[in-house]
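Re: beginner question about structure tokens

> Can someone show what the tokenized structure looks like for a real chain? I only ever see the sequence side.

Sure, here's an example I had lying around. Input first:
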Amino acid sequence: MEKEQAVDRQDFDEVMVPCYAPMQIVPVKGQGSTVWDQDGRDYIDFAGGIAVSCLGHCHPVMVKALTAQAEQLWHVSNVMTNEPALRLARLLTEHSFADKVFFANSGAEANEAALKLARRYAADVYGPEKSEIIAFTQGFHGRTFFTVTVGGQAAYSDGFGPKPGDVTHLPYNDLETLAAHMSSRTCAVMMEPLQGEGGIIAPDPAFVQGVRDLCDQHNALLVFDEVQTGNGRTGEFYAYQGLGVTPDILSTAKSLGGGFPIGAMLTTTALAEHLKVGTHGSTYGGNPLACAVAEAVVRTVTEPDFLAGVKAREQWFRDALQAINAQYPIFSEIRGKGLLLGAALNAEWKGRARDVLQAAGAEGVMVLVAGADVVRFTPSLAITKAEFDEGMARLSRAIGTLYTQQMDKTA
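And the corresponding structure tokens:
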């Protein structure tokens, strides 16, 4: 067998489209919440592949599911169905409001399906003039042209020519503005039940209930983007279950496959009927490999003790971050829920979230950012106490180094 070609970070610059700016380290192995790079150096993973690796790296239930399915069936296309897809769909309906499931490959594709369904339903039932989609500033819904337009961050959608029309962006958590704007033309309101990319912004309970009420009043659909919040991330299987408000359509991905690409749109029987044969599809959606892994993930995450463990780990993070901040005061608040948390930088440290990320990497701990002012944590939902403690010790050293450097500059 031919020996594998040696590659390193420089190869990225030579052969990859430069729409990413990856760190210099190249991970080659992961186990639990620890990752090793090409030089054998270990890193504690508080990033979880951006809220994807919900069971950590190479979890035994995932490895077993993938290995078993790899010896059975890889792909059949949607000319036929397959057993893993049917089992996973049944499982998702048992653990949510939904009756029907559409499988895709990513969160963006799940959101694309959700938006197309909302538009198709409104056109079928009320007519073509009911087409407005309302979303919120600083929202993020994917990178397809439709989803990136609905996402409320112009920096991601500008520069690609004319955008899909009839999309309105309003401030998050501002019910008065939404109420003043909504009309009979509104076909759907799309929102994250906890904004991720926008800075880990939680909704006011009254706002969430008010959005639901306004949608009912104007015969509009409520679409929850749970790509980042779903599958146990907030301590509930889906975040809506902790808010007391049920959407009409829900999108899920990221943690659903625990690292294997898969997305899904969940909805009711009455709405699903409007995506008739031929109106939407996906070559790989419902792939047996992806669905087998996702089934193993969902069965693990929905165990009551597992979800209780997410809430306990949230407190680990809050307590440790507050202790670091007492020694090196750079944060103004700790935001979020479950293990979707953001440490917001205070006025003196505004714009330096990436500095914290880089310093953390240098100390051997992986974190994320949510904009320029928030350090984001989306670790494995099963991270061990030993991994957590080591990661926080490394993060404390990283922040201590930055803090000392800043104090030396201003002295």
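Each token stands for a local structural state, so reading them left to right follows the chain. The first strand starts at residue 27 and ends at 31.
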